Amino acid sequence: MQNFFNWITSNQQIIYIVILMVFVGIEVIGRVPSVLHTPLMSGANAIHGVVIIGAIIVMGKAENNNFTALILGFLAVVLGTLNVVGGFVVTDRMLEMFKKKKAHNPNNII
Amino acid sequence: MEISILTVLYLVASVSFILGLKMLSHPETARKGNLAAAAGMSLAIFGTIFLYQDEDGSKLHNYGWIFTGLVIGGIIGVAAAKKVKMTAMPEMVSLFNGMGGACAALISLVEFNHFAATDFTFRIFEAYDSTAGIDEDMLVLPVPTAMIITVLLGLIIGSISFAGSMVAWGKLNGRIQDKTFKGHHVSNLVLLGGILIISILLIIQIHSSFRLGPEELRILHLRNPLLSKINITLPVSVYIVFYAIFLLSLLYGILFVLPIGGADMPVVISLLNSFTGVAAACGGFLYDNKVMLTGGILVGAAGTLLTILMCRAMNRSLKNVLIGSFGGNASQTAVNKDQGQFKEITLNDAAVVMAYANKVMIVPGYGLAVAQAQHACHELEKILNERGVNVKYAIHPVAGRMPGHMNVLLAEADVSYEKLLEMEHANDEFPTTDVVLVLGANDVVNPAAKSDPDSPIYGMPILDVELAKTVIVNKRSMKPGYAGIENQLFFQPKTSMLFGDAKKVLQDLIGEIKNL
Question: A97 vs chain B: nearest CA distance in angstroms?
């Protein structure tokens, strides 16, 4: 029990961040019209690609003779980059279509 | 100095994620929002590469490997994202999501090996105080339990997300069929419980490896404590159990998604999306990295809410979706009904009915996406517009394979944003609509959701197309939809069927209308 409280005290910053971010995430999504659900899901998908930073740290800390760490870390960097880059590009492609159509026929409102 | 710059960069990146998500919620700012989040991400990535220092102040190395990885991943990512067809977008999102999950799981694998390879040799002089003798409290090494829990969580959630996304991807592009066996859900629960129990046992085992037994304590007192060392080694079983957890999590991910029907895939992808978010946040805990934590939790929370919103749109609980009444069981419940006769309509008649209507409502579904018929659909809309027909689209929130799937598809074909009606508005307009054209949609217009308490989709809000004067349904055949349920709508007197591939039928319709 003592350990648990110690842990809470020494990690309170992180715990605060988690709690606040949960509310921010809910608030931000709450007002999304359903037309934007797919791009939004795709955008969120790209944002959790931030896991790439962990992969970079793993890769950058691996010793030169530790091939398991090097190979796994390298794979993690490639997959993480796929998630980030692919995610943002796909989202942009989706949104581009919304925008193009808006610019094209502004008088088409019925 | 450098580390403070990195802190600022992370702060900027975190804010850009929040702003990005916020801007993504409005059609006018959505694209900028995406770019803002991408810019923030680039700052965080390159900041990490060049400025990151660990607690000892040493910087990262292996730049060659890192940049090669970034370039390879970047090229494949851009190529895949540029090449993918709009209809295959949900699969792509699922695939990228799986990559993120795999990345989180790999990080955990490396970190665990790193932890296990640490030299735990315990030097007695650290516990030895020359005046008071051995301080027994110091004889227990501080075990980084929180760190091990985080590594395990990242491994489990990341693996489930990866395996689940791969199955969802395979299901969406038709490579994997719905499969379920007797007691599937029970065995899933048992498996998940098993993973958790084994994880807890593993933590206890690691913990106890660090505690010195009475035998070791006795030896300590005999020797000269200043020279004494005790070797702490993790038993081989720790590795075996760790990799067993990894494999079981992958298996769970597969079994978790396998029985869930295609109609529920949007919910599952959204859920897995939030899983990956949480897995990324685990990495944030591990490295005390605020930007990973912020981004991960943000997506985890938002994804969970999105999942719940989608379940609510179908008037079902998340539990109901996951335990799943769609798919296998559904077809058995609804077969024993007298279906009556359906009637077909010729292309020419359909063309006449639509061309002389005042208001036509198009209800798109997955069939439209499969047939790539969005451009033909827009073509039909234009030609009807020229004849003075008011054409609108009724979009069910879960039509297609993803929320907003139809919107994206129609946007690709330049259909005006204002013509897409959400379900509530569309339902208000159906009574004044002359012709409803259902293009490859089925379950979202199935009146059984309102009238038949035995139906698996009972309670799901639907588009009330029967309120319109005439309904024309385009399908490839009389086969039931993805949920495997018969649709009473097709047998009603005001409904007529127009069989064929959506694209071909639309093109023929356009030709007929031109000839009128």
Answer: 5
Beta strands B122-123 and B229-230, pairing class = antiparallel
Residue B387 one-letter amino acid: R
- Cross-chain residue pair B295–A47, CB shorter than 8 Å: yes
In this structure, is residue A99 part of a structural domain? no
Whole-angstrom CA distances from B514 to B352, B360, B388, B508 are 11, 17, 14, 10
Q: Which one, of A43, A37, A79, lies nearest residue B40 by Cα? A: A43
A35 belongs to a structural domain:
no
Note the pLDDT tens digit of each residue in A80-105. 999 999 999 999 988 877 655 444 44
**The amino acid at B22:** K
- Read off the amino acid at residue A45: N
**Which among A47, A91, A98 has CB closest to B17?**
A47
Residue B374: partners with Cβ closer than 8 Å, 6 or more residues away:
B86, B364, B368, B409, B410, B412, B413, B415
B chain contacts of residue A71, beta-carbon cutoff 8 Å: none
Asked if the Cβ–Cβ distance from B97 to A83 is below 8 Å, we say: yes
- Mean per-residue pLDDT of chain B: 84
Question: Are B236 and B304 spatial neighbours (Cβ–Cβ below 8 Å)?
Answer: no
Give me B486's structure tokens: 């018969």
Mean pLDDT of chain A, nearest integer:
84
Closest Cα in chain A, distance from residue B73 (Å) = 4
**Percent helix, percent strand, percent coil in chain A, to nearest 5:** 85, 0, 15
* CB within 8 Å: A83 and B286: no
Lookup: tokens for A65:
């003779």
H or E element in which residue B314 lies: none
Kindly state whether residue A26 falls inside one of the protein's structural domains. Answer: no
d(CA B306, CA B121): 49
Kindly state whether residue A106 falls inside one of the protein's structural domains.
no
Cβ of residue B253 closer than 8 Å to a chain A Cβ:
no
Torsion of CA B133, B137, B140, B142, to 10 degrees: -120
Question: How far off is chain B from A5, nearest CA to CA, in Å?
Answer: 12
Question: Which uninterrupted H or E stretch holds B320?
Answer: helix B318-323
B107 touches chain A (CB under 8 A): yes
Q: Are B503 and B283 in contact (CB under 8 A)?
A: no
Catalytic position from the list B56, B178, B428, B443: B443
Q: List the one residue out of B390, B491, B397 whose CA is nearest residue B436.
A: B390
The predicted model scores a pTM of 0.81
Which residues of chain A make contact with B269, given a CB cutoff of 8 A? 41
Higher pLDDT among residues B207 and B67, named by residue = B67
Three-state DSSP state, B85? coil
Chain B positions in Cβ-Cβ contact with residue A70 (cut-off 8 Å) = 62, 65
The three-state secondary structure class of B225 is coil
Number of domains in chain A: 1
**Could you tell me the residue range of the domain that residue A59 belongs to?**
46-94
